[in-house]
Each structure stands twice: as C-alpha cells, then as structure tokens.
Amino acid sequence: MPDVLFILNGPNLNLLGEREPEIYGHTTLAEIEAACRKRGEQEGFAIEFRQTNFEGELIESVQEARRHAAGIIINPAGYSFTSIALLDSLKMFNGPKIELHISNIHTREEIYHRSLVSRTATAVIAGLGPLGYEVAIGAMRGLLGKR
Ligand code: CA2
C-alpha cells in the first residue's frame, strides 16, 4: 500500500488563475492537483488533494490525516496568520508537515509575515509558485524514507 499524502488548501485558493496573476500566476488549482497526482505517482504516494474555504473543514481534514496520512502538505492561505485552532490541530499530527505558500510571503505586506502554522511545520516552502507543490512531494519522499 502506498503512503498517503494529504495536500490541503485553504480559503480562496479555488480562485487561483482567475485573479491577481501578478502574485499567484495563471495556473489553476485543478492544474496544480493534476501535477501533484503525477508527481505523487512517480514518488509512490497516494494523493488526497482538498480545498476548502472553511476553517473547521480544514481542521477536520488535519484530524482525518492523523488516521490516514503519512504526511501533510498544507497551504493554509489566510488561516496561516489567524488560526490558533488550525495550529493546534497540526500540532497533534505526528508525521512530517510542510507549510507551502505559492508567493513569497516575506516580500509582501507585513500582515503576511508571521505565520502561526510555521511554529509546527517541519519545513516551509514559499515563493516557488505552483512548482512548490511538486518540490514538497519530492521532499516528503526524503522525509519519509525510500519506498
Ligand atoms: O502564496 C500563497 O500561497 C498564500 O498562502 C495565498 C493566500 C495568502 O493569504 C497567503 O499570504 C499566501 C491567499 C490566497 C488567495 O488566493 C487567491 C487566488 C486567486 C486570486 C486572488 C487570491
């Protein structure tokens, strides 16, 4: 049975490719999901890819990951900076957790500089654009060991 990776996406990421291409590019979330599935297959992972605009739903996915996933890749979007509840849920996940941002949050306005989620993340990827997702999947293979 392949290891399962949960790839979780927070609010507004369903609009990727439609607005603010100068920050987030032209790639849609569906295209990112397709690339993740392809890379996941190459790395021997089963991919569970989700997006939600609801904080509680994101937390429920993290809780579900405790039972089913070897690792979590999460783009918490706006909840990165506000949600202690999301931070608490991630703290209870024992496997590797990669926090991912498409943009480089540190070159943006100050409100995007202090991610709460980073306090529990194994690693943080920011600024690689959609490629960051594939880099994170490759890194998970290293963190979890060989197939
Ligand atoms: O760069 C990222 O991936 C972010 O997590 C995206 C979040 C932002 O709050 C973080 O600071 C960085 C915002 C996602 C908003 O998504 C949009 C998608 C299309 C158009 C406009 C916003």
Please name the defining characteristics of this protein:
147 residues, globular, binds ligand CA2
**Overall number of structural domains:** 1
Mean pLDDT: 95
Uncertain segments are none
Query: What's the architecture, going by CATH?
Result: 3-Layer(aba) Sandwich
Biggest β-sheet strands, sense, barrel: 5 strands, parallel
Fraction of residues in H or I helices: 25-40%
Estimate the strand proportion: 15-25%
Number of strands: 5
CATH superfamily: Dehydroquinase, class II
Which CATH class?
A: Alpha Beta
Strand order of the largest sheet: 2-1-3-4-5
CATH topology: the name is: Rossmann fold
Class based on secondary structure composition and strand pairing:
alpha/beta
Identify the bound ligands. ligand CA2
Number of helices: 5
> What string gives the helices and strands in order?
EHHEHEHEEH
Structure description:
With 147 residues, the protein is α/β, with parallel strands linked by helices. The protein has helices at 21-24, 29-43, 55-68, 84-91, 131-144, and strands at 3-9, 45-51, 71-75, 97-101, 123-126. It has a single domain (3-143), classed as Rossmann fold. Helix content is 37%, strand content 19%. The chain has a five-stranded parallel β-sheet with strand order 2-1-3-4-5, with helices on both faces. It is globular and about 40 Å long. The termini are close together. The model has no long low-confidence stretch (mean pLDDT 95).
Short description:
The protein is of the alpha/beta class. It contains five helices and five strands.
